[in-house]
Amino acid sequence: MSLRRRFFAAVYDSQMRRSEKAGLTDMRIALVSQAEGTVLEIGAGTGANLGHYSPSATSLTVTEPDVHMFKRLERHAQTVAPSAMLLRAPAEDLPFEDGTFDTVVSTLVLCGVDDQPRAVREIRRVLRPGGRLLFLEHVRADDPKIAKKQDKMNRINRAVVCCDCNRPTLETIEAAGFEVTALEHTVLPKAPPFARPSIVATAVAPGSSAPQALPTRSASAPH
Q1: b or e along 88-117 (b: 16 or more beta carbons within 10 Å of the residue's beta carbon)?
Q2: Cα separation, 213 vs 63, whole angstroms
């Protein structure tokens, strides 16, 4: 397992390069630039989002559980986000007090956590009431034919890229009590067809002072 994880961390950036150039980077920028106040990014990987935070993010804390990814994250952060606090921690067990953050960011993370419902409950716990979860995730398709193909390919997908391509992530987030206030159905550019269905969304943690809902729209990213 360690050897596979080491290899995955080593090739991750090159593996994602075509997708990033084809539109994924633009999707990241549009989402991450909305983060405000005290911000937590979970599962940051090699740090692809670090250069996209705006000055509205008054502090940035970043977690990544994998030791091999974390080493690359540290090197990248020294250049683009030297003031960020970096911690090794899984999304299912975040080492923070309740209500610590104004915003939590998750991009292509909830597909790979060991226990998705628990990870989402932890995100809710560390967000202040009315705080926002900004997320970009590839998900189980609404189309039954594509979903069936995802189920068939998932074992291979997990072996190659260490994540599930068929998780009902939006339903998990809503089941945890979040209110989804903006939702875009899109695709992960240059991904295999069974891994393309994706969502970009904002969800608000239960409590008072929730931000005003943004308009819901549907679009497709470049292929």
Answers
A1: ebbbbebebeeebbbbbbbbbbbbbbeebe
A2: 28
* Count of domains forming the chain: 1
Residue 63 within a domain: yes
The pTM of the full predicted model, rounded to 2 decimals, is 0.90
The tokens describing 85, both together, are 């606090």
Q: Is 209 helix (H, G, I), strand (E, B) or coil?
A: coil
**213 assigned to some structural domain:** no
CATH number assigned to the domain comprising residue 202: 3.40.50.150
- Name residues whose C-beta falls within 8 Å of residue 197's C-beta, 6 or more positions apart in sequence: 138, 139, 140, 141, 142, 143, 146, 150, 185, 187, 188
Q: Is residue 148 part of a domain?
A: yes
Amino acid 209: pLDDT: 41
117-138 per-position pLDDT tens digit: 999 999 999 999 999 999 999 9
Averaged pLDDT, 53-76: 97
Helix 67-80 and helix 2-19, axial crossing angle in degrees, nearest 10: 40
Is position 222 within any domain? no
Q: Which domain holds residue 74?
A: 2-208
Contact 211, 180 (CB under 8 A): no
Strands (E), the chain: 37-41, 57-63, 85-87, 101-107, 127-138, 179-187, 197-204, 217-218
pLDDT at position 13, please? 86
